[in-house]
Amino acid sequence: MDAREQPSRILVIDDDPSACALVEMALGASGHKVETRSDAQSGLQAIDQSDFDVVLTDLHLQGTSGLELCERFVALRPDLPVIVITAFGSLETAVAAIRAGAYDYITKPIDMRVLGIAVERALDHAALRQELTRLRSTDEAGFPRIVGDSPLMRKTHDLVSRVAPSAATVLITGESGTGKELVARSIHEESPRAHRRFVAVNCGAMPASLLESELFGHVQGAFTDAKETRPGLFIEADGGTLFLDEIGDMPSEMQVKLLRVLQEGKVRPVGGSEERNIDVRILAATNRDLEALVEAGQFREDLFYRINVVQIEVPPLRLRGTDVLDLVHHFVEVYARRSGRPVRGVAEPAARRLLDYDWPGNVRELQNVIERAVTLTQFDQVTVEDLPTKIQNFERQDFVIADDHPDQMPSMEEIETRYIKAVMRATGGNKTRASRILGLDRRTLYRKLERLDEHTD
């Protein structure tokens, strides 16, 4: 995340002067501007009179509990992250604080490294919410982060609008880089849970043991490095949304445990003996063919049906037509503003190259290309010379058959081969989608693909 230009303002509320002094010293050394208050009433007055970026409040204040104070802060300033400090590091306290609206909690005695991390995360969270609010105010369609008005994207917008108000589990599919997490965030932001947390985790980025602790939490002493009790992401997302990215890569032993949580609505921390009720909406995403994984025995069928109540397929960029140009102008504006460069648009020859390219990396690749171009261009528009060589030299290969040379017409077998290859490219290798387009069952498609592989060996 970009460095913040102004020092962040932190309000600390604690009736222990020594604790206030330590926190003020630690956060001040990190460049934050810290103010302290010793009671709830003066803390509320400070919020009313000044703007703060984060509030830290002790859970045990004379006259008013920290939980009650947290609820009042959330009512007054729902955009203000509140971190509660407690001497009682129990899951019950953590759950109570989060349900009261707290963004996070830390325990006494305060580990200043942990405090610093918690404050930075809260500041990043607040900055993201502010950006979403700004984007939403300029976008009447209500989709602040999804750019594009092609028929395929209008269908995606429509599905998001229809599914967002419900509590249904949604499986978001599509190639890497198409924007599956943006779709998930849009569902959350348009849902009744928008005032609570959106928590994301990459299920394929960590081993099963670490993922279990990350999702379900752990109690102190549950394993060697478990030096304190920590709530998992299910607890953090209680009342909100948990986004399980790359769920197709989830280890098989974790699939069983996740299914149990989804069925029973309860989590048990690693090393714990008590289960906790949770209210979490699940959104999942994958770039893999889950039906094929189910058939291969690599993904549980019962879990597949549990997460696939509603499916939203995010189209690849190569099928979105002039959405490419909408995205190009959006990213040019974003990176020109961020870098302070006077770049206003894209020259027509460069726009044609960007439209012709097939974007194997999808929106993520386009974003990277435009950031690079805005950085390198010497003009007020992105030119062809500012684009990567592979885009400058790209030539589209369309599937056509010329009928003016009968002697050169391909055989039916060759036509079928070329068409199957074209469909496989268009679907990013997704055999389930390809079989639907081709009108073949998957086993027949597999046999044909095996035959093609044999002929190319």
State the secondary-structure class.
Answer: alpha/beta
Count of DSSP H/I helices: 19
Number of strands: 16
Beta-strand proportion: 5-15%
Main sheet: strands, sense, barrel: 5 strands, parallel
- Form type: globular
Give the % helix: 40-55%
Could you tell me the radius of gyration in angstroms?
26 Å
> Uncertain runs with pLDDT below 50, 5 residues or more?
133-144
- Can you list the strand order of the major beta sheet? 2-1-3-4-5
End-to-end separation: 47 Å
Write down the overall mean pLDDT: 83
Oligomer: single chain
Protein architecture, described:
By secondary structure, the protein is of the alpha/beta class. It contains 19 helices and 16 strands. A five-stranded parallel β-sheet has the order 2-1-3-4-5, with helices on both faces. Strands 7-10-13-6-14 form a five-stranded parallel β-sheet. Helix 8 (208-216) packs parallel to helix 10. The longest helix is centred in the N-terminal third of the chain and has 26 residues, at 112-137. Mean pLDDT is 83; it is low at 133-144.
What's the gist of this structure?
The chain has helices at residues 17-29, 40-49, 66-76, 91-99, 112-137, 151-163, 180-189, 208-216, 233-236, 252-264, 290-295, 301-307, 323-339, 348-356, 362-376, 389-392, 412-426, 431-438, 442-456, and strands spanning 9-13, 33-37, 54-58, 82-86, 104-107, 170-173, 198-202, 217-218, 230-231, 241-245, 266-267, 276-277, 281-286, 310-313, 345-346, 381-382. It is α/β, with parallel strands linked by helices and 457 residues long.
Give short descriptive properties of this protein.
alpha/beta, five-stranded parallel sheet, 19 helices
